[in-house]
Structures are given as structure tokens and as C-alpha cells.
């Protein structure tokens, strides 16, 4: 493998990790837990792993070790997130430290590798090639859902053949939901296979008090913020364009909020606030156009706007429309596919309730078609395919034309569109993510050594120096509730949305009026891997505000 100078330098980086993981540990159990919602339903679905306690690792005398070696399998599931390779390296180093003859097997291209018995042993030489690198290319990833008995039994065949006693699933909320279902099934049949999850998603919507952040969020936000800062500098140089920048985040606006805290754009829309205020699409357009008009009065016909990927699903009226569309396509997709393309819009309108039919008919043709695209494996509309940034800029342009004719606006408006998604998913991990991910993997290996199943690796207190981080495990059932998916109620991990009363949003809210009028841009620059701690090892501003609960002076 040909490597760049940076890759060569990064290969020698030794991730920092909690002091407790460096020696022998004892697992301290807390009190019994319950699910995030729908307790009775979740308890019935997961009788063998429900109510488990939260676990903390504490230092114990002696050296870590196991009498016998253990074989472990690992799956990368869902979209890529920076640091995945370090999770695998942490698992490998952890089980090798427990017993030198332990072996690690990676299943190829996600959960389908388990079902189809496609795998490879991950040896030390292979692991060393991928330490501190981005991407998931060591074994690839996939979005196959693990949800049927046939899949579980097929996977168990290869696990038994390879004498794999534990399986680590590295993924987001849906992937870890699958891990929970798999753990329950294997426990119910006494399969002798433990299942451990690791929290991954750049969207940042997999978190709670024990899971402070999902890995990859830190790196992705720093990559996007560098790009936004570059655009802001260009914007402030040419002074003639409004940049509409859509960023990842289909179910939560954590990325948009973090990038705003890092770069100080003139406008940042937070989906959760739109939903709470029950704003319509016209309300959002009016808000954006108003700020553009105010800046134009100062001769500032330029600016930057950050838009979360999933915004359109948070507009209450359109959310109801999408919910009905999802149900419609869950039950009638075959019938819909037989309709001529030229007649599909009218066909959809004829099948919707009068209220939603009116809304759908009012949408621009391009957006209406995008709402009718094939659903993702979970039955959801593919919001990344909806060009919200273009929709908003077109509608804002029309609003400003109206105001021009009415004598309310005398500025100039030219829009440029951007969507930052893949640019951040496989980036080389920041020092924070390199350390955090390695610690998560190592923690997973210790949960395996402790005989645990149905748990997610947890590393917290991560705004402190790494040696003071706290490691342990959280029962996956603790994060679950029932939600409607593909027309049916299913157990899923509850997504963590932006809290409008939380410190990060409250700080943003206190500053956005100033950012709207002033050109107070911040240019973060590229991720730094070598140098002072305050430059290289800082976690996200979101996490720092959440931990401190106060306005940070560096913001």
C-alpha cells in the first residue's frame, strides 16, 4: 500500500487511553436499568438482556489476562465514520493482551459478510497498515439489516465454525439496534456468543449520559468546518455571493450546530427548533430573506447559510406528508412502479389525504420527485437526495424579487450551493477520534473478557485528559423505544436530537443575532495532528459546552 508522508507519520502515533485500561480491571455494576421508552414492550421483546446494570471499570491488582484464548468477530455496519480502524485496532490489541493466541476475524462488507460467511482473519500485519487511518476499507461496510431468525442462524454457523465466542458490531443507532436483537436471540438459545456494540455515526445522534458522543463526529465536523471557513473567507473576499451549505444530519442537527459554533455563519437553521416553533417552509424562507435584506442595507450582499440535511422532515406539515408517503410506499411500491413516470405525481396525489395531497401538489416538481425516490433499508425517505439548499435559495430569491417590486429590498442576490457529506465520512481521524475510538475498541475487548453481552462500549469524561477518561458499558436496551418503521412498530434506539434547552444551542442562540448582521467569521483551518494540545486534542465545542454547561470564552 502506497502511503503519503502524513500516513507514514500517523502510523507511529500511539493513541492515548484511560489509565484504567492499562492494567487489570474489575467490573463495577450499577443499579438495574430500564429502556428509554415503552418499557413493557421492550422488556417483552428482550427478556434475556433487559434491565442490565450500567458498568464501570475500576483498577484491580494483577495483570489482565485470560486462561484460554478467545476468538472475536467484528462487523463495520452502515456509513463510514473516521476512527473505525482504530476501534478494530483497540479490539485486536485488547484481546491479544488478554491472551496472545486470541484471534480476530473481520466480516466483509458489513452484516452481509456474517450471513454469507465472507470473512478474513485480521492479523497484526494487517492491523498495523490501518492504524490511525480513515475509512472502513480494512473490511468494508454495508447496510444489510440483521433482523430475521434465518439470518441469525446462518451467522451462527460461521461463528461456530471459527469458534468465535464474541461479536462486536460497530455502527449507529440502527446497527446497534440489530446488535441488541442479535444478542437477545443468541442468549435465548444459549448459543455461547456474546454481542457487543460500539457507537458510530458522524451525525452525532447516538448519545446519552454514558455515551457522550458517537465516534467520527469530531473529525467530520472539523473537516466540514474547515471547508465552511474556506468558503467564508472567499465569501468575505469577493463579497457578492450567498452560499447555501447543506451538511450531513438526517435526523438531528448536531453537525450543523457544531459547524456554526466553529465558524460563526450568518445563518444556521436548526431542524429541532423549526419543529418546536411549528414553522412552515414559508416561515423559513421569510427568516432567511429578512437577514439577507438587513445585510443588504449595510451594503453586504454576501453571506453563509448552514442547512442540516434532514431539515425538510422537521417542517411539521411536510413531516406529516412524508410519514404518509412512507406508509404508502411501504405497502404500494410495486403498484406505484407500474405507473408511467409522467403520471406518477398525479397518482401519488390521488392516494394521499386531502391535506397532504394539497401540500404535495404545491411542491416544486423536482422536490416532489425527490420525495418519491426509493426508501432506504429502514423505510425512510433519502433526505440526502433532496436538494434542500437549492429549494431554499430559489424560494428566497422569489421572496426577494417580491420585496424588490414592493420597494422593500434594494440589494443584489446571487446564490451558490454546496453539500458536504462524503468529504468528512472517511477522513483521517483527529487525535480525539483516534484516541476515543481506540479506547472504545479496547473497552469492548474488556467487556468480552467480563462475559458481557447486549452492551455498548462506553468511554466518557472525554473533555478531560485521556488518562482520566472513564470506561465501561451501557445496556443497549436502556437506549431503546418503539417507533414506526416501514409501516410497523419496531424496537429501535431512540435518536438523540439537539436539545433546545441544552448549553450548546443556548450559546448559539445568544450569538446568532450578532453573527447575522456582523461578518464575524472564524476560519478553523485543517485538522492538526502534531503540536500543542490546545490545537491538536480539543474535543468539539458541543461536547465542551455540554460538559461545562457555560459559555466558553474561546467561542
Give the gist of this structure:
The chain is of the alpha/beta class.
Task: Give your account of this protein's structure.
The protein is α/β, with parallel strands linked by helices and 555 residues long. It has 2 domains: 37-216 and 429-493, 3-Layer(aba) Sandwich (Rossmann fold), CATH 3.40.50.450; 218-424 and 501-548, 3-Layer(aba) Sandwich (Rossmann fold). It has 21 helices and 15 strands. The strands form 3 sheets. A 9-stranded mixed beta sheet has the order 1-2-13-12-7-6-3-4-5, with helices on both faces. A 4-stranded parallel beta sheet has the order 9-10-8-11, with helices on both faces. Strands 14-15 form a two-stranded antiparallel ribbon. α12 packs across α14. The two termini are 41 Å apart.
Note the topology.
Layout lengths: L4 H7 L13 E8 L6 H7 L7 E7 L11 E6 L7 H15 L4 E5 L3 H6 L2 E3 L2 H7 L18 H13 L2 E8 L1 H16 L5 E6 L17 H22 L3 E6 L6 H10 L3 E2 L2 H7 L3 H16 L6 E6 L7 H22 L3 H11 L2 H9 L2 H7 L16 H18 L9 E6 L1 H4 L5 H19 L5 E6 L9 E6 L4 E6 L2 E6 L9 H15 L15 H4 L4 H8 L7
Parallel strand pairs: 3-4, 3-6, 6-7, 7-12, 8-10, 8-11, 9-10
Antiparallel strand pairs: 1-2, 2-13, 4-5, 12-13, 14-15
Write out key terms for the chains shown.
15 strands; Rossmann fold; globular; alpha/beta; 555 residues; nine-stranded mixed beta sheet; 2 domains; single chain; four-stranded parallel beta sheet; disordered C terminus
Q: Per the principal axes of the C-alpha atoms, what is the gross shape?
A: globular
Task: Label the CATH architecture of the largest domain.
Answer: 3-Layer(aba) Sandwich
Low-confidence stretches: 550-555
Strand order of the largest sheet: 1-2-13-12-7-6-3-4-5
Q: Report the count of strand segments.
A: 15
CATH topology of the largest domain: Rossmann fold
Rounded to an integer in angstroms, the radius of gyration calculated over CA atoms is 24 Å
Number of domains: 2
Mean pLDDT: 93
Amino acid at each position: 500500500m502506497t502511503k503519503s508522508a502524513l500516513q507514514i507519520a500517523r502510523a507511529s502515533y500511539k493513541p492515548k487511553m484511560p489509565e484504567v485500561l492499562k492494567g487489570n480491571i474489575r467490573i463495577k455494576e450499577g443499579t438495574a436499568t430500564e429502556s428509554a421508552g415503552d418499557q413493557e414492550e421492550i422488556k417483552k421483546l428482550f427478556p434475556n438482556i433487559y434491565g442490565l446494570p450500567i458498568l464501570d471499570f475500576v483498577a484491580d491488582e494483577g495483570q489482565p489476562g485470560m486462561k484460554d484464548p478467545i476468538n472475536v468477530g467484528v462487523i463495520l455496519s452502515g456509513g463510514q465514520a473516521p476512527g473505525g480502524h482504530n476501534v478494530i485496532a483497540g479490539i485486536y490489541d485488547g484481546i491479544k493482551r488478554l491472551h496472545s493466541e486470541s484471534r480476530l476475524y473481520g466480516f466483509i462488507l458489513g452484516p452481509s459478510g456474517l450471513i454469507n460467511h465472507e470473512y478474513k482473519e485480521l492479523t497484526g500485519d494487517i492491523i498495523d497498515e490501518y492504524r490511525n487511518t480513515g475509512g472502513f476499507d480494512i473490511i468494508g461496510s454495508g447496510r444489510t439489516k440483521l433482523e430475521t431468525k434465518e439470518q441469525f442462524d446462518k451467522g451462527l454457523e460461521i461463528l461456530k465454525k471459527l469458534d468465535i465466542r464474541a461479536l462486536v458490531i460497530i455502527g449507529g443507532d440502527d446497527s446497534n439496534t440489530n446488535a441488541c436483537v442479535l444478542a437477545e436471540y443468541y442468549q435465548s438459545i444459549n448459543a455461547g456468543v456474546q454481542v457487543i456494540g460500539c457507537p458510530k455515526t458522524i451525525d452525532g445522534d447516538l448519545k446519552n449520559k454514558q455515551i457522550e458522543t458517537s465516534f467520527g463526529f469530531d473529525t467530520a465536523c472539523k473537516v466540514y468546518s474547515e471547508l465552511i471557513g474556506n468558503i467564508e473567507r472567499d465569501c468575505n473576499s469577493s463579497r457578492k455571493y450567498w452560499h447555501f451549505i447543506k451538511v450531513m444530519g438526517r435526523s438531528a442537527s448536531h453537525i450543523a450546530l457544531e459547524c456554526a459554533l466553529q465558524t460563526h455563519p450568518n445563518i444556521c437553521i436548526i431542524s429541532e427548533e423549526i419543529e418546536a416553533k411549528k414553522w412552515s417552509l414559508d416561515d423559513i424562507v421569510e427568516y432567511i430573506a429578512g437577514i439577507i435584506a438587513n445585510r443588504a442595507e449595510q451594503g453586504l450582499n454576501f453571506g453563509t447559510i448552514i442547512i442540516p440535511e434532514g431539515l425538510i422532515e422537521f417542517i411539521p406539515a411536510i413531516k406529516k406528508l412524508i410519514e404518509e408517503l412512507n406508509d404508502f410506499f411501504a405497502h404500494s411500491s410495486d403498484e406505484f412502479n407500474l405507473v408511467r413516470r409522467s403520471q406518477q405525481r398525479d397518482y401519488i396525489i390521488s392516494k394521499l389525504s386531502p391535506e397532504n395531497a394539497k401540500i404535495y401538489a404545491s411542491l416544486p416538481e423536482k422536490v416532489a420527485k425527490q420525495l418519491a425516490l426509493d426508501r432506504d433499508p429502514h423505510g425512510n425517505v433519502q433526505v440526502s437526495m433532496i436538494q434542500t439548499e437549492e429549494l431554499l435559495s430559489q424560494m428566497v430569491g422569489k421572496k426577494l424579487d417580491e420585496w424588490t417590486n414592493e420597494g422593500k429590498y434594494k440589494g443584489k442576490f446571487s446564490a451558490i450551493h454546496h453539500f458536504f457529506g462524503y468529504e468528512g465520512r472517511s477522513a483521517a481521524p483527529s487525535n480525539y477520534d483516534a484516541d476515543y475510538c481506540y479506547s472504545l475498541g479496547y473497552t469492548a475487548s474488556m467487556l468480552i473478557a467480563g462475559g458481557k453481552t447486549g452492551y455498548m462500549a462506553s468511554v466518557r469524561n472525554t473533555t478531560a485528559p485521556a488518562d482520566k477518561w472513564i470506561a465501561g458499558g451501557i445496556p443497549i436496551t436502556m437506549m431503546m423505544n418503539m417507533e414506526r418503521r416501514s409501516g410497523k412498530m419496531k424496537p429501535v434506539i431512540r435518536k438523540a436530537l439537539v436539545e433546545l434547552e441544552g448549553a450548546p444551542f443556548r450559546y448559539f442562540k445568544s450569538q446568532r443575532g450578532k453573527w447575522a448582521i456582523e461578518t464575524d467569521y472564524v476560519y478553523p483551518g485543517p485538522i492538526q495532528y502534531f503540536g500543542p494540545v490546545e490545537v491538536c486534542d480539543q474535543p468539539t465545542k458541543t461536547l465542551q459546552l455540554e460538559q461545562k454547561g457555560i459559555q466558553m470564552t474561546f467561542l
